[in-house]
Amino acid sequence: MKTASPAVSSLATPALNGNLSEDLSGVFVLKPMLQWGGKSNRKGRKQSLSLVWLSFAGRKRWSVSIWSRNRGEWLPLRVREVDSFAWEGAVCHRLEAMIEFESDADVAYRLESDGARAFESHAKFPIGASRQRVVLFGDFADGTAGAGNIAECALGLAPDMVLVSGDIVYKSGLLREYKMHYEPVFNGPSSGVPLARTTVVVAAAGNHDVRLPKDADKVKPVSDEDAFGFFRIFRQANNGPRLSASGLRDMVGENAEGLELLRCIGPDFVRRSNFALYQGNVQWTILDANKYMDWREPELQSGFGPRFREGETTSGASCRFTSPDLTGMRSIAAIGECVFWRRSSKSSAFRWCSVVTVIFTSGIDRSGIG
User: Fold this and answer.
1) Could you tell me how far CA 351 lies from the centroid of its own chain?
2) Cα(277)–Cα(230) distance, integer angstroms
3) Residues 341 and 315 sit within 8 Å (Cβ to Cβ)
4) Span 21-73, pLDDT tens digits
5) 20, 255, 274, 297, 316 from 300: Cα distances, Å
């Protein structure tokens, strides 16, 4: 696959080589990815982003540094372990470093493992200007050539942020499938496109991201930790609704995916798949619209600024948005891979529309959306 140029401006830094070794298989489970976790100020203006990577347990001493234009030197960052888990016969660590941004919209960073340089790249910061360039796509990493074309096109547009609307990897969102289909295409540059390492990626959970594998599937989970890769990879805004134990049980009911998420990920999975981003004068609301979610639950509705209200019976839509408490927010958008329709009055079953990207907007400039 042709390697695209990083979507960041050049920096007055020492030359960066991207992957410093052709074989990183013994170093990284998944190479560094720029994500939305981090700090915001009181006005919601982002001040730092989260650099996340998964490594094998044999690599114990990690250090990360960024290049400071203001000081003209590399500055160390604190590295912390988010969690660890067993995967394919080995112990994996999920590690994180917060990249603090100066006045510049981009930085250079590098990682060292056990004293040896392991990785380096540029990172683009999603600026808080009134106009932002956001690339949105979904149903992406399925192992076909088309996925690479999408990633290369997205990088060529030089976005401030990438939103993936769900169904990130096929078929079941396994960690193994991220390793097979996502990283080789999305996080080059040696064999793919250097998008995830240079541009912040925000993701919604689609039905394939929480799908329970079937016996006929070619790729099957090797352990509980292999399942629900979405929750083991993405570090996102931690501001979603937090349900009580009883409310969560009532909502999930007997739904198989919901029960398995509770067992493997824990009750916080709802908070981690439903959240809001505040960037410039835009609020992006990311929704989990899978079958175990019931957005009529008051605890869910109270978790966001936009209130969810029952829609018109003639339209079939289960919710609509209002924004009574978002004074000064000119634009509101909600992203979800599928949207449920009204719950039948005679049955607890949902009528739902799957594999549909839905954007609710108020004041968003939608030029370029197709």
Assistant:
1) 27
2) 18
3) no
4) 445 667 889 999 999 886 665 555 666 789 999 998 776 789 999 988 777 88
5) 46, 18, 9, 5, 20
**Helix, strand or coil, per DSSP, at residue 129:** coil
Q: Given this model, what pLDDT does residue 199 score? A: 93
Beta-bridge mates of residue 227: none
For the chain, the farthest-separated pair of C-alpha atoms sits apart, in whole angstroms, at: 68
The DSSP 8-state label assigned to residue 21 in this structure reads S
Residue with token string 């920096």? 11
DSSP string, 110-128: EEEETTEEEEEEEEE----
In eight-state DSSP terms, residue 317 is: B
Q: Which three-class secondary structure state does DSSP give residue 264?
A: helix
Separate counts of helices (H) and strands (E) for the chain: 8, 19
Each residue of 295-317: pLDDT tens digit?
Answer: 777 788 776 644 444 333 222 23
- Rounded to whole angstroms, the Cα distance separating 9 from 195 reads 14
Chain position carrying tokens 């981009």: 106
Decide: 317 and 261 in contact? Cβ < 8 Å. no
Give, as one character, the DSSP assignment of residue 360: E
